[in-house]
């Protein structure tokens, strides 16, 4: 099978794929219905399988995300169902989740009530649910197109899921939440023309854009966090690397303190946290 994966990798290289080798192995393994780790143990493919691989390579070369072709996205230790209508989770978000897990782990079980705003595929909540025990997990998503993926990815994990606008969500939890976490839309609407075509064409509009300065959804995240958090509770939100100062100002003006921006492994300012003081 190394020969077919090699041919696919060459075809993807010519079409500008950023990682042709791994993508080729995932596409071929997907068509054969096997795990990538056993790809090299398969000797032959049928004509139908080869034709299917060629069809997927053509779609990938035309700009469809690999994750839409295989129906799967990987996030930390999770394998998530994705497809058209739901945002494909990105590696940048994994670091914010790692930070949040560290904060939650430092709290006693029983003080780990978490609300995720803008849940999309459920990647963040799924990772928290797998990696730390004793959490009471809640998540909200507005998009009816994303909802089936969220339900599927969090099935059997005892997560309270709600379909609706985060602005009005979880009023029953006001003042009781230990951590509010969000990867909201944050691209200024005027930046559409600067985005890669595959992002504009294949990620949902609602997941990307958020007003003229890109901060509309983060203003809502701040206001909702202010309402939901208990004394000493934390909010953390992902944002564009150029928005760190603006996000800290938004959090402060919502009545949250100690706003701090955290760099990713490349040193880019990608998420900011704040707390609600004991006297707030
Ligand atoms: C950038 S995506 C992030 C999805 C997921 N949390 C992740 O990290 O992969 C933002 C998500 O926010 C959702 N969204 C946008 N506005 C919302 C709102 N007012 N209330 C709830 N969800 C919203 C979008 O539909 C989209 O699924």
From TrEMBL:
Gene3D superfamilies: DNA helicase RuvA subunit, C-terminal domain (1.10.8.10), Vaccinia Virus protein VP39 (3.40.50.150). It is an enzyme of class 2 (transferase). It comes from the Bacteria. Residues 5-71 form the Release factor glutamine methyltransferase N-terminal domain. Keywords: Methyltransferase, S-adenosyl-L-methionine, Transferase. This is peptide chain release factor N(5)-glutamine methyltransferase. GO terms for biological process: methylation. It comes from Tessaracoccus lacteus. InterPro entries: DNA_methylase_N6_adenine_CS, HemK-like, N5-glutamine_MTase, PrmC_N, RF_methyltr_PrmC, SAM-dependent_MTases_sf, Small_mtfrase_dom. Coiled coil: none annotated. It catalyses: L-glutaminyl-[peptide chain release factor] + S-adenosyl-L-methionine = N(5)-methyl-L-glutaminyl-[peptide chain release factor] + S-adenosyl-L-homocysteine + H(+).
